[in-house]
Amino acid sequence: MTDSKPQIVDNFGRPHTYLRISLTDRCNLRCFYCMPEEGIELMEKSNIMTIEEIIDLATTFRDLGVDTIRLTGGEPLVRKNFGFLIEELAKLGVTLKLTTNGIVLDKYLDLFQKIGLKKINISLDTLDKAKSIFITKRDYFQRILQNLETALEMDMEVKLNIVLIKGVNDNEINDFIELTRYKNLTIKFIEFMPFKGNKWDWDKGVSKNEILDTISNGFGIIEELKNPKHSTSSNFKVLNHVGSFAIVSTITSPFCDDCNRIRVTADGKMKNCLFANSETDLLTPLRNRDAMDDLIINAIKTKKHSRDGMDVKMEAEHYEQNRSMISIGG
User: Fold this and answer.
1) Cβ(114)–Cβ(86) under 8 Å?
2) Where are the alpha helices (DSSP H) in 91-166?
3) Residue 270 phi, psi (nearest 5)
4) Given phi > 0 = left and psi -120 to 50 = alpha, else beta, which region is 322?
5) Is 198 in contact with 33 (CB distance < 8 Å)?
6) Distance CA 56, CA 52 (A)
7) CA 58: distance to chain centroid?
8) What's the average model confidence in pLDDT over 8-18?
9) Residue 274, Ramachandran bin (φ over 0: left; ψ between -120 and 50: alpha; else beta)
10) Which domains does the chain have, with CATH numbers?
11) What is the dihedral of CA 291, 296, 299, 303, to 10 degrees?
């Protein structure tokens, strides 16, 4: 781990030590809550950060005090030369994490063990094959389940990311919780969030309290766990279950007070918040070999306290000006 003192501090005194880097806006699934029905205009290849640029940028953030880097997409594992990239990032001395849909996870699990990457989030919104095809527009369900089992057998720290949508998969909450009875994994329920083109309507959402009530009615006693510092979720487990569950309550109970996260998109734009409309271009100065430190440090000063200023409610005129989720990075 790096001993570098955090230097990326916003105007609310929050040190930012966690960086999410999107490697690509391409994905081998087409989940409707992530990608608009009409698809997206893919980024020009020349505008995408090269592998070397990603490493250079990650090194700059490491030197500014970032100690955790999560790789996202699109689907990060479809990025060409991903294996080389992850080995080089492992040399930075930071904690590496990954968010993936799990389709080609088996290709990299041995490498992850070798370099010490253990924390993997797998997006899996349903345990029903037909419903999976409906949500993702692709048929990789069995392959994802097999790769999940393999990751658990290899003692990876696995979280399942489930975006809950009323009338789609909210009837599966307790089916997912049942997995934690004997499996050492975390089920991570995520409230349906608004992005450009995903036809968001909170009437489709399932709140934190609804989730807890459903689980309590199905399983009885729920233990509340101590949340790690900077946690984006409330964490729980059912009494006597091996695994645990978490709820990301972005809509009904935002967790922004001690946010320490920064995002960089695949085309090298720094976003202070998932919902931020404003972006800071890092790729152009990176390619010009300009100094980056002050640019990053000053950019974080513009960060708003909560949800890019949508403190009270989510406003369509605001989030529709943002990118679609797939082009931000999951």
Assistant:
1) no
2) 109-115, 129-136, 141-153
3) -85, 125
4) beta
5) yes
6) 6
7) 17
8) 97
9) alpha
10) 18-328 (3.20.20.70)
11) 180
CB neighbours of 133 closer than 8 A, spacing ≥ 6? Answer: 139, 141
- Residue 323: CB atoms within 10 A of its CB come to 21
Q: What is the identity of the amino acid at 68?
A: T
Neighbour tally for 256: CB within 10 Å: 18
One-letter amino acid identity for 87?
Answer: E
| pLDDT mean over 84-88 | 98
Side chain identity at residue 225, one-letter code: L
| Gap between the Cα atoms of 105 and 176, Å rounded | 21
| Residue corresponding to tokens 């088996």 | 106
Residue 1: predicted pLDDT: 45
Q: Per DSSP, what are the bridge partners of residue 235? A: 246
Q: Is the pLDDT of residue 245 over 50?
A: yes
Instruction: Tell me which H or E stretch contains 157.
Output: strand 157-164
- Percent of the chain scoring above 70 in pLDDT: 89
Q: What is the pLDDT of residues 162-177, one digit of tens each?
A: 999 999 999 999 999 9
Global confidence as pTM:
0.91
Q: To 5 degrees, how large is the angle CA 272–CA 276–CA 279? A: 65
Tokens of 188: 């991570």
